[in-house]
């Protein structure tokens, strides 16, 4: 009998960068891991441009991320055809899906309108990366009564009501068993913003489900958000994917790599004559 490597049937992974700056080594390592896991499973990889934050997203960064990913050798297999290349799916074009999910959550009385601070608002379209995660919401605007269903989310902030005291447990492919308590480790979180944008949390769940993603590979700074997202999957009647969070890359002072580390962006490294193979060997050593 021939030795055939076990194939995970129908594996679907995704790369989900936000076009708010150039990709750096930290992104590259996570995306390389996502690519390798999809390859090993003989699966499909999808590229999604998380461009909801119209203030910070720039088309030139979206173009750069496609170019940088390809330079590194990463390939994905789906999306609109642009001359032999697959263009990324763009969140900014998927509003109808997010509105439908909002409506479902309002009908189920799982979300409520809230007048929260500007600071919270500014953050919610972005994924909360570790040190910029929001404080637990004290529940000031939580209604005691049922709310009536408005025709659209426009003009209000909307928060998801978390089940206080419930432990959310999941298995992570890298970190093992993780557990977070709703109401203690995170509070009622925004799913829609007054300026008419779905939050990162809502959009990412709607899209991962719609794109039939079977495993989410991303940075460890989003572990806590996974617990929030599991609640959204349940509320929307959707099956969550498997999770694989990658350890974060840090600079010499211990800070998570971010857009401020321009010298470690793939762009700059490439300009300095670094080869993609050299970048990849850094991850594999
Ligand atoms: N777009 C998010 C970011 O770049 C990541 C979202 C995710 O992987 O869930 O921070």
Describe this structure in words.
The chain is α/β, with parallel strands linked by helices and 285 residues long. The protein has a domain at 8-93 and 250-285: Rossmann fold (3-Layer(aba) Sandwich), CATH 3.40.50. It contains 8 helices and 11 strands. A 4-stranded antiparallel beta sheet has the order 4-5-8-9, with helices on both faces. The protein has a 3-stranded parallel beta sheet with strand order 1-2-3, covered by helices on one side. A two-stranded antiparallel sheet has the order 6-7. A hairpin with a 3-residue loop joins β6 and β7 (176-181). α3 crosses α5 and α5 (200-210) crosses α6 (223-235). It is globular, with a radius of gyration of 19 Å.
What structural keywords apply?
single chain, 285 residues, alpha/beta, Rossmann fold, 4-stranded antiparallel sheet, binds glutamic acid
- What percent of residues are in strands? 15-25%
User: Based on CA inertia axes, which overall geometry fits?
Assistant: globular
Rg calc: 19 Å
Major beta sheet summary? 4 strands, antiparallel
Average pLDDT = 91
Say which CATH homologous superfamily of the domain at 8-93 and 250-285 is assigned: HUPs
Q: Tell me the helix content.
A: 25-40%
Strands in their spatial order, largest beta sheet: 4-5-8-9
Write the H/E string, N to C: EHEHEHEHEEEEEHEHEHH
Assembly form of the protein? single chain
CATH topology grouping of the domain at 8-93 and 250-285? Rossmann fold
CATH top level of the domain at 8-93 and 250-285?
Alpha Beta
The unique ligands bound to this protein are: glutamic acid
Instruction: Flag low-confidence runs.
Output: 1-8
Distance N to C terminus: 35 Å
Number of strands: 11
